Amino acid sequence: MILKTEAVVLKTINQGDTSKIATLYSREQGRIKMIAKGVRNTKSRYLGLLDPVQHVEVLFYEKSNSDLQLFKSGEIVQSYYTLHKDFDRLAFAQVAMEFIERAAEKTEPHPELFEIIIGTLASLDNPKIMPVKSYWYFHLRCLGELGFRFDAFRCHQCKTTLVGTGAVYHRPDAAIYCTACSPTPDERFIINLSPRTMAIMQMIDGENWPGIQQVITTLSDRRSLWDFIWHYTKVHLPPIEQMKSLAVLEQIYHHA
Ligand SMILES: [Zn+2]
Question: How far is the CA of 220 from the centre of ligand 1 (A)?
């Protein structure tokens, strides 16, 4: 059977002299893998179509008892020119692709997750939005969709509101506390989250893009939010350990 789907390319590996095996995240089928024969031939009209971060529509032959489908044809849906010509923006997009590749269930349709991915590519392509903010949005929204949403609004212990205040993330508990309930002041075990950092997380939860764009963060805010989201994610999603693209990004990020 021939199927058509809109998808984003997560990962590609070369196969033989001219073929590729691509892993895609699709709106209708979730994560799918397909072999595309001859597409690395310089004369192929599909050269580059199945490179990571491409947003495409593909036709493929579905083999019901195999997890490897056969690519037939396809075209670009959106080009995202700004994203593709900016090294930092592209590095964030590559981390997002690898994150989905490792964290999302195989072949399980999840259209909300697909919408977050293409929404993130669109915001990474927007020169008015700091790429790290688009990435935070992507990561925090994905955690929610994958069942690991954390409460950025209330203290884990006393349930007091965290709106308008700073908070403390306690690594051993993987939980957020108000400053009064923080189990320890020892910085080896906690990450201090400033009122700005908490506000960003709360605005991402409410999809308040105008608010997210207005918050001015310091380098220390960005580092603590970064350390927090990755620590929390590694606790809940062990497959994201040792992501290759993350090492590249952290070099950029910690020099930002
Ligand atoms: Zn508390």
Answer: 23
Least confident of 45-59, 103-117, 167-181: 103-117
Superfamily (CATH H level) for 2-78: Nucleic acid-binding proteins (2.40.50.140)
User: Distance from the CA of 142 to the center of ligand 1, in angstroms?
Assistant: 26
Average pLDDT, the chain: 93
Is residue 46 within 8 Å of 34, Cβ to Cβ? no
Give residue 224's pLDDT.
Answer: 93
CA dist 146 → 34, 149, 172 (Å): 24, 8, 22
- How does 176-196 read in b/e, with b if 16+ C-beta sit within 10 Å? bbbeebbeeeeeeebbbbbeb
Residue 254 has pLDDT above 70, yes or no: no
Does residue 84 contact residue 70 with C-beta atoms inside 8 Å?
no
Q: Where are the domains of the chain?
A: 2-78, 150-236
Q: How far is the CA of 185 from the centre of ligand 1 (A)?
A: 14
Per-residue pLDDT reduced to its tens digit, 94-123: 999 999 999 987 678 899 999 999 999 999
Looking at the DSSP bridge assignments, the partners of residue 58 are 5, 74
Is the entire prediction scored with pTM above 0.85? yes
Between the CA of 176 and the centroid of ligand 1 the distance, in Å, is: 9
The pLDDT of 131-137, averaged and rounded, is 94
Full DSSP string of 171-227: TTTTEEE-TTT-S---TTTEEEE-HHHHHHHHHHHTT-HHHHHHPPPPHHHHHHHHH
